[in-house]
Amino acid sequence: MSSTKTRFLLDEENAPRSYYNLLADLKTPPPPPLHPGTMKPIGPDDLAPLFPKALIQQEVSTERDIEIPEAVREVYRLYRPSPLVRARALEKALGTPAKLYFKYEGVSPTGSHKPNTAIAQAYFNALEGTKRLTTETGAGQWGSSLAFAGQHFGLEVEVFMVRVSYDQKPYRRALMETFGATCIPSPSPRTSFGRQVLERDPQSPGSLGIAISEAVEAVGQKPGSRYALGSVLNHVLLHQTVVGLETMKQLELAGDAPDILVGCTGGGSNFGGFVFPFLGQQLRGGRAVRIVAVEPAACPSLTKGRYAYDFGDTGRMTPLVKMHTLGADFLPAPFHAGGLRYHGMSPLVSHVKELGLIEARAYDQLPCFAAAVQFARTEGIVPAPEASHAVKGAIDLALECKARGEAKTIVFNLCGHGHFDMQAYTDYFAGKLQESTLDPKALESSLGALPTVR
Amino acid sequence: MSSTKTRFLLDEENAPRSYYNLLADLKTPPPPPLHPGTMKPIGPDDLAPLFPKALIQQEVSTERDIEIPEAVREVYRLYRPSPLVRARALEKALGTPAKLYFKYEGVSPTGSHKPNTAIAQAYFNALEGTKRLTTETGAGQWGSSLAFAGQHFGLEVEVFMVRVSYDQKPYRRALMETFGATCIPSPSPRTSFGRQVLERDPQSPGSLGIAISEAVEAVGQKPGSRYALGSVLNHVLLHQTVVGLETMKQLELAGDAPDILVGCTGGGSNFGGFVFPFLGQQLRGGRAVRIVAVEPAACPSLTKGRYAYDFGDTGRMTPLVKMHTLGADFLPAPFHAGGLRYHGMSPLVSHVKELGLIEARAYDQLPCFAAAVQFARTEGIVPAPEASHAVKGAIDLALECKARGEAKTIVFNLCGHGHFDMQAYTDYFAGKLQESTLDPKALESSLGALPTVR
After folding, report:
1. How many domains, in total, are found in chain A?
2. Could you tell me if B173 lies within 8 Å of chain A, comparing CB atoms?
């Protein structure tokens, strides 16, 4: 029976001690990453210049439970376990018979789920002697998270921030500085790839793909440097499974079980971390759950992309991974959910989509902001523009339940708050935001440039 | 014995069901407010145009426990109980034998303690038929909180925001809009008092005193309007005692008891709400606690003000209250802790200061920002500029413990986060912030203008 409570708090003593690895429960593994030169599957040595060994091992491990080191759990305890909340006020406003729960990752130091992997990555890097981490960031959530994590483990952090977000989100830059990192707008003259892009288009708004190329190139500029990625890769999604694992325990406290899970997808890490533990349970013969990924209509890799081998970055420096992609050259129109502007999708999320284990839908940004405002006024949390996609998805599913008179249990991941994104809300109220529709020609062109893999 | 845990979470079932009223435990009551015309103590009728009866009763009640209505507790459950955190990382960085705990009020919808009273005030107003609330706000924390609370109980909310904060904190305005309120920079041409001020000084940065005058005047501009105050008054501090009451229970969970309590003071509400339950316990013969109020050196009512009858506002419309005041005409130099720019101090906080039950110290803003950055890098929370004063006070006391080798338990109230104040951090890192020292001549002049009361 459902609890009458509103917030379900997990004591730190009951926090997960291991990450959950979906690879252990998948009968068919995802296709391997390929070396861009040889087109052969890459080995650990190919990744060694970029990542510490422990993370490379996690990337390919098929062990189900991977221990979270005590030093990482110690930093998690600054903000985890995060709350699971029954959205009673929103349910009432919607008049839905559905039960709505949200997991709230905005309680972290940087207001999103990103520190969950930043802390782990900083720890494993520090353990193997890394002195400096380079990375890219979209909306700034990842960059500020790595800044915070680097601070805790004594690492220097250098962040290439997508230019359009750098300009739109000055508070995120301030946050990175507060946590002691250096923040550079990308494309930048700091790298040869950045200089190339600027030469072609001095006004380039940038993209995650470009910023990744710059951050990867910057590793070579200083000894003791390694690279950190905030999404897409298996080990990143692995670290994020603390979100789903906690949610499972909290739903038990709530006396409930999920019928539908909803998350927003950019690179796929908050989504994967949230749903994989539930998906694993289902694959092992447990409760079946409907899983819905929500993405922006302006950057719809899962709903409009091609499942194909592609580069992770625009500069074509990374290994080729098989994923839903809009093409590494794809530049989405500027819209406010900077964290969802990636051309590709996590290979693992793409794989489970291909297996038919999850579904996807895309929304324009205006209805997402409307949903976010309704959520703020009822539940008292202003969602990040990225998270507003999950809110919109959950509200729509709750209204579908209402139309059918179904009392389903819907659980969504509110992956972050919008405190550093208030300019987006100002623009929204001022009527300055537009639907950012997809340019079919640009998509055709970037898909046409996909690399050929036998 | 102290718990080994980091965060002490109170279940909503153990949340306080009553507010704690310090007036019940004070042997000598504070001097009564006086009517500005007659100079006689005011009665409930004098306040009736501004406040609903229930709040006027709370203002003068001497009952110890005042029930929190279920409708108010329901909205509290969106974010309360708030966490109590053992600042282990900060302790380690300071190398202090002291134990440092902080109560974290930044988890509220607006990121500070202000909703604790906003929700109660909106509820009691709605109950007595109020349709519209007018108020003032300094940094915007109170205005956004009343906006949120008004939304929940169907009230229109109009906020006069101190001009200097209005300009410095656009994100706070966006937050008020998100919660459906109207925000007007003060001094404004909307009121006759605002027009007077603008005539004398068109560039006036404004002050809380001016904004209060405008908000009080605006009540008369539309039927069904009442006024709400975010600090200073007894009933406001009463509502804030949920902070201290929760902290007491959480310290029990932590297996600890406080030696020193620290809070920052502007109008006195977060400080009073945090310390009064402990002070009451002491007055009833329980554990004695050292209580330290921290205020900005640029607006030092407790350390440099006079304990005298004064107006709450610059327009001299409010009742006269006996308090530590810098004079209702005092305009502090612009500094970043907008919530601490009030010329006076809660009469109840002033009273316990006069009784020698609390002590006070003042800090300049630069060392407060330095303390805030140290706190952010260790504990992962960026404090509001107001809260940074409490952080600085707690750190100094912890270092004093270190110097004396004393393992005291220090508990401070981190009354809010700085997510909407990141411009202040940007300015701090850019070296643009200065010590805002007190102008002795301005103080002399404003103290000279204090009203004469026999």
Report:
1. 1
2. yes
What is the tens place of the pLDDT at every residue in B173-217?
999 999 999 999 999 999 999 999 999 999 998 988 899 999 999
A178 contacts chain B (CB < 8 A): yes
Closest CA to B246 of B75, B65, B16: B16
- Classify A262 as helix, strand or coil: strand
What are the chain A neighbours of B423 within 8 Å (beta carbons)? 170-171, 174
User: Looking at the domain assignment, is residue A153 inside a domain?
Assistant: no
> Which CATH number characterizes residue A435's domain?
3.40.50.1100
CB contacts of B74 in chain A (<8 Å) are 6
Alpha-carbon distance B118 to B99, whole Å? 32
Q: Is residue A324 part of a domain?
A: yes
Measured between beta carbons, the chain A residues lying within 8 angstroms of B107 are 107
**Is A347 domain-assigned?**
yes
Which tens digit of pLDDT belongs to each residue from B334-352?
778 777 888 999 999 999 9
Residue B384 falls within a domain, yes or no? yes
Amino acid identity, residue A264? Answer: C
Distance CA A372, CA A367 (A): 9
Q: Name the closest residue on chain B to residue A10, using Cα atoms.
A: B9
Distance from CA of B144 to the nearest CA of A (A): 11
Residues of chain A neighbouring B177 (CB-CB closer than 8 A):
425-426, 429
Residue numbers of chain A with a pLDDT score lower than 50: none
Average pLDDT over residues B63-90: 98
* Enclosing domain of residue B389: 7-14+68-111+237-448
* Structure ipTM over 0.90, yes or no: yes
B13 touches chain A (CB under 8 A): yes
Closest Cα of chain A to B417: distance in Å?
10
pLDDT tens for each residue of B119-153: 999 999 999 999 999 999 988 999 999 999 999 99
Q: What is the C-alpha separation between A99 and A8, in angstroms, rounded?
A: 14
Do B171 and A422 lie within an 8 Å CB cutoff? yes
For residue A375, the tally of other CB atoms under 10 A from its CB is 26
Residue of B3, B5, B6 to mutate for A, most A C-beta atoms under 10 A: B6
What phi and psi, each to the nearest 5 degrees, are found at residue A320? Answer: -85, 130
